[in-house]
Amino acid sequence: MAGMLNYYFLIWAVIMRISGRHLAPKGASSSLHLRCLVLYPKCMSCHWTPQDGAASNTTFHLRYKRRGVTEAEECKDYVTSGPNSCYFSRTNLCLYLTYEIWVEAGNQMSEKLIVNTEDIAKTEPPEGLKATGFGTHFSVEWGYPPGVAASYFPLVFELQYQEQGSGEWEQEPDVGEQTSYYVYDVKPDTVYLLAVRCKNSDGKGFWSDWSTPVTVSSGQATAKPVQSQAQ
What we know:
mainly beta
């Protein structure tokens, strides 16, 4: 009897092994970590992390389709963004649409990443940052990042500044959508560093990198005129 049980167990194990090899859904055991980022409005790049122990000659295929489209397409550029990546140029990228994106490697498949490009977008930093010191305050101005129009992709901004050499940034988080701002209560005759960053005004996506800091001297404080006393 024990011999028959062992025989049936062996047959069951072989059947389950064949079924698992040929019928198990792709991606059931995959640990690929897929993430994508849009640099609005220029491009999108996706990166993934191969499983530990994956063979160095493993071939990866990134596939995608836009929401509502039944046929998937394969990545057209595996080079520009570096190893284990896919680069979408502006020509191959549809902004404001939802994508389904996944990676296949042999008989494995990553989990599908379903994202709207706005939700994973950031821009380049604002450009043209300049400031003028008036003793106890600054006047600061900047422009939109290259290629970004306020009418299509309105932005909000954050400004930070520090005394040169202090290493401690102070932030002005309530700048809003304006592209000019006054910073008050600074020290006269002191050199400051300033930088600005931006993000989609509807809260989606990510903050841009900080702009390259600019230096500005606060200048001399203007003395208030002394009022004469009434006789």
